[in-house]
Design a protein that fits this description.
heterodimer; A: Helix Hairpins; elongated; B: about 450 residues
């Protein structure tokens, strides 16, 4: 048994839960769109870590395949997100989401 | 499966249109392709081997019915939205994005594996982020795209965390295996229940159920109105169908743990949606909040967890989508003529625009749930399904919400008939076809609900 496998599953779950929570808090409190993107990435990577840990724990490969899908989709999502951000920056010269408050009644 | 393949190919064809120079015919081609896909999809009704790709997708009657609803809605949407494709150089891209969004929606109603659910949601969402921002110079459209993107990605994070926890407990992504796991282990691991709650939050974001609905009005308001109507109908139908499938298959045996939460969500959604809609002065925002409240009624069908729940869900989403598309077509015509969608813009329109007045009246009455229109029977069957195994408290809340909704739906009708205005709004040929078709369909479905409910 190598060193990685001697780490109990609970530690992975705790670590992922903490990363996920940091990501969620970051999305909720930060005001810069790029930092919010990074926090969302942190949430997704917490999921990736957890999936891989469970996959190794169950001895089942499908979890790791799912991680590939998450990575591919997250990349596509960020590509679109950054495009939207550039579009906003062109029109308004800012990446602060507090600027985006025109739509309300 | 056939519909999925045909519409994917149609999407790729749309991408090629720019290169091979047949952009002029793309619109006709798309409508034709969608009609073929609709027909092909119905050949799979009662199919003996509904499962494809190692049980990744399952085209049982439930999925085929929802695919039918989605494609019919998409055809009506294309009839409504030719102007969306005309005015700039991105005709082919926009068509392709809409078609791929439809592909995502079809994955979401026919998944049999969480992987497919995730991929379906993402295909749909990523296309919608781009479409919401397709009005590049308009800051409102930019803001709408940004909000939709942030909220969508945030919700996806919760959904994925839920999937990871459920995978940790069950060692499988297959929704049937998860059901088996729950049968074999009635006292499931705490990971499983955490997973259910996280997935519930993620999906509640997607169907814009309160208190996770706050993004919807802003996004609906800022996006180009054709995209808004796509979100309000096709996206909502697909999300609610995915929600129902997951919770009625995989998590049904654990309903004690999530049904109370979902009941609270339903009650809050219905009340918040209807009450906030009363205070809106813009039709787009009013329709957004009305969409929130309809998500609440649809969640009653999820709570019902029986056959009739599934069937009434198909009927309700079809009735709701037809009425909403017609309402948005009217709003689009008014925006084109007057520049905004304020309630006052509708004053006196009935005098010189009979078709607009009739179509919006029928669709508003249907959304409000006035018999004998389709919306009434949609609500009736959803409530009946819910009452089969639950107490009537939530139905009473839903009924009072429905009573509130009459105020804001009738406000539009009253405005149209109140004063006399000489203005005449020109309608394009396809809009006329759409409005007539939606009126006929709404009345027909209302008079003969067995057209949908009798096919099972």
């Amino acid at each position: 048994m190598n060193a990685l496998q001697s780490v109990p599953l609970n530690h992975y779950i705790l670590l992922s839960a903490m990363l996920f929570a940091i990501g969620v808090i970051g999305v909720l409190v930060r005001r810069n769109a790029i930092i919010i993107f990074m926090c969302i990435e942190l949430m997704l990577n917490a999921v990736n870590l957890l999936m891989v840990a469970f996959s190794a724990h169950h001895g089942d490969g499908s979890g790791q395949v799912f991680v590939f899908f998450i990575m591919a989709v997250a990349a596509a999502e960020v590509a679109v997100g950054l495009a939207i951000l550039i579009m906003i920056h062109r029109n308004s010269k800012t990446t602060d989401i507090d600027f985006l408050n025109k739509l309300k009644f | 499966m056939k519909a999925l393949i045909i519409i994917s190919c149609l999407g790729f064809l749309a991408l090629l249109a720019e290169i091979l120079n047949f952009k002029k015919h793309l619109y006709t081609l798309t409508l034709l392709g969608l009609t073929v896909a609709l027909g092909a999809s119905f050949t799979e009704w009662n199919s003996a081997m509904p499962s494809y790709l190692n049980h990744m997708v399952l085209f049982d009657n439930y999925s085929v019915a929802f695919i039918g609803v989605l494609i019919i809605t998409a055809i009506l949407w294309f009839l409504m939205a030719p102007s969306f494709f005309k005015d700039d150089t991105h005709t082919a891209d926009k068509s392709a994005l809409v078609l791929f969004a439809l592909v995502g929606a079809i994955c979401m109603v026919s998944y049999h594996n969480m992987t497919m659910l995730f991929i379906g949601i993402e295909i749909l969402s990523i296309c919608m982020y781009v479409l919401a921002g397709s009005n590049k110079k308009d800051l409102a459209s930019n803001e709408s795209a940004m909000k939709y993107f942030l909220m969508g990605a945030f919700a996806t994070g919760f959904l994925l965390m839920g999937i990871a926890f459920i995978y940790g407990a069950t060692a499988s992504f297959d929704i049937f295996q998860i059901k088996l796991y729950l049968q074999n282990n009635p006292a499931a691991s705490p990971l499983f229940y955490t997973g259910i709650m996280l997935m519930l939050i993620g999906l509640a974001f997607k169907i814009s159920a309160a208190p996770f609905h706050f993004w919807a009005p802003d996004v609906y308001d800022g996006a180009p109105i054709q995209v808004t109507s796509f979100m309000a109908t096709i996206v909502k139908t697909a999300a609610i169908a995915a929600f129902f499938k997951l919770f009625s298959t995989s998590f049904a045996a654990a309903s004690d743990t999530w049904s109370t939460t979902l009941m609270w969500l339903t009650a809050i959604t219905i009340l918040v949606g209807n009450i906030t809609a009363v205070f809106q002065n813009d039709i787009k925002r009013m329709l957004a909040y009305s969409g929130v409240s309809h998500a609440g009624y649809l969640m009653l069908a999820i709570l019902a967890m029986n056959e009739l729940g599934a069937h009434s869900l198909v009927y309700y989403t079809l009735a709701y989508s037809i009425a909403t598309i017609a309402a948005f077509a009217v709003v689009l015509a008014v925006i084109n003529a007057k520049g905004n969608s304020h309630f006052d813009s509708f004053l006196g329109l009935a005098k010189n625009n009979r078709l607009l007045a009739v179509a919006s009246t029928v669709s508003m009455l249907s959304l409000a749930g006035i018999p004998p229109l389709a919306g009434f029977f949609g609500k009736y069957y959803v409530f009946t399904a819910y009452l089969q195994n639950h107490s009537p408290i939530l139905v009473l809340i839903a009924l009072s919400g429905s009573a509130i909704s009459i105020y804001y739906y009738f406000r539009l009708i009253v405005n149209m008939f109140k004063f006399e205005s000489e203005e005449k709004i020109a309608l394009s040929y396809s809009t006329k076809v759409l409005l007539v078709a939606s009126v006929i369909l709404t009345i027909l479905l209302g008079l003969m609900p067995d057209l949908i409910l009798g096919i099972w």
